[in-house]
Amino acid sequence: MIASxxxxxxxxxxxxxxxxxxxxxxxxxxTLGVLVWSLGEGSALLPLGPDWQVFWVKAAxxxxxxxxxxxxxxxxxxxxxxxTVTLVATIAAAVVPAAAAVLSLSESxxxxxxxEGTPYLLVMASVYLVVIISVIFxxxxxxxxxATYRRQIGFVLMGALIPWVVVLSPPFTTSLLEPTASWCVLxxxxxxxxxxxxxxxxxxxxxxxLSKDRYFNNLTDGIFVLDPQxxxxxxxxxxxxxxxxxxxxxxGLPAAEFINHFPELQKGYEGEYEATYIQSxxxxxxxxxxxxxxxxxxxxxxxxxxxxxxxxxxxxxxxETEDALRTAHKKVSILSEISQHDIKNxxxxxxxxxxxxxxxxxxxxxxxxxxxxxxDASEIIAExxxxxxxxxxxxxxxxxxxxxxxxxxxAGRILENHGVALEVExxxxxxxxxxxxxxxxxxxxxxxxxxGGGITTMRVSASDAGxxxxxxxxxxxxxxxxSEKEKIFEREYGSHxxxxxxxTREILSATGISIRECGxxxxxxxxxxxxxxxxxxxxxxxxxxxx
Length: 547
Known about the structure:
This protein has helices spanning 2-17, 24-42, 50-78, 83-106, 111-114, 117-144, 147-167, 170-173, 181-200, 209-214, 237-243, 247-250, 262-267, 316-360, 366-391, 404-411, 413-416, 437-451, 500-509, and strands at residues 222-226, 232-235, 275-282, 288-299, 305-314, 400-403, 421-425, 429-433, 457-465, 468-475, 514-517, 526-531, 536-539, 545-546. By secondary structure, the chain is α+β, with helices and mostly antiparallel strands. The strands form 3 sheets. Strands 2-1-5-4-3 form a 5-stranded antiparallel sheet. A 5-stranded mixed sheet has the order 7-9-10-12-11, covered by helices on one side. The longest helix has 45 residues, at 316-360. It is elongated. The two termini are 56 Å apart. Residues 172-182 have low confidence and may be disordered.
């Protein structure tokens, strides 16, 4: 009895820790019923008085009323039945044991009558009916399951069969030996041992066959489960299609024998972290297939590596689209560059002749106004061309880690030409942004020179606030009016072309970084660049980067 109680308590704790898995909560309730029933049956072995014996017999009926429907619910959930079927089956399994428990507790029927004759046969018949139904479901599941899960299902099936087989064995069916509480406790203890082995050794509630059947085989990516030596344990249907073999034919073989370039992937994989490798293969018809191989460790509840999870994703369509976009972008870029070059040459002609006209035209004439407007328009067109050149590669090139201090200092050359001092206090901060990030500082500096009203100093600083990094770019000019703080980022807003701040926001938003103006009007403009935590890091003094 003590052994049975200890084992049931251990497995109750295990199932509760894994309560999010299918059937784990029902199995936890089942183990509680086993605890109560074991106490009730086992106490019959102790030299207790009649009143205590009656009490423990009642407790045994309560345990049966709990464990029988809980076992039925567990089996239904474990084998993947729908919730409505689980509910109906559980209620049906609970009717007779619950009635017996109510009759015993209310003393409507003497306990001695419930322990013999027709009432006892009805209770036992309902119990064994549940056992038989569960055995049928588990056997059907065992026959359809892959080899990986058969041991786990076998342990669960063993836990269902042991009580039934032991009670119906010859010692119980002969008149020489009547069933006793000691045999019942031994029977439950043996079943609990089988269930414990299934929980701890075969991954019960850690990996459920139901999950594989519903999700594993329906994935559009090839999935291969490997053992610690990188030998195949099983593969899903898509994986079988990729290697053109059934997993049973390859089980036990090293992955390198049926997955091309797996050795290259394995070289960069230490078994503790995920590794990725892109593989390209030539098909017999001359076309190319592209695959992404990703491998990660499978660990148990003690964080020990028990295998490896290999995902093979066909990215051929993605690569074709990427190549087509890259080719189209290259062609458009060439055409844009030629067009911009030709337009710029013509603008230089306009600016040259316009300058001559401006010099020979009287200052007080209407013609002077027209010439100046022509020159202003040509300057705006030149700025649009420059902005178009900057936007051409926006979001196309891969983001990269960039030093904030260095980018702010390089862009500061425009300030030197206007006699504005620059103060940079960003330390060793680096951010992961679009390669055009330096252009952000240039645009902010240019905007301050053009609209700041005679600024003398620009300051760039960085600080941590609210879990993110805030880069501040501020000046000592006249600031931005409250009504214009959002409008200044809109395209074509302002007294000039209006593209500088608009382009600034676009460069930052390409990598999830935002910008806002929050200065005090009359005391200078203050632009705050908000960088998500995953987009920033501090450079390590030893030369390595620290997140």
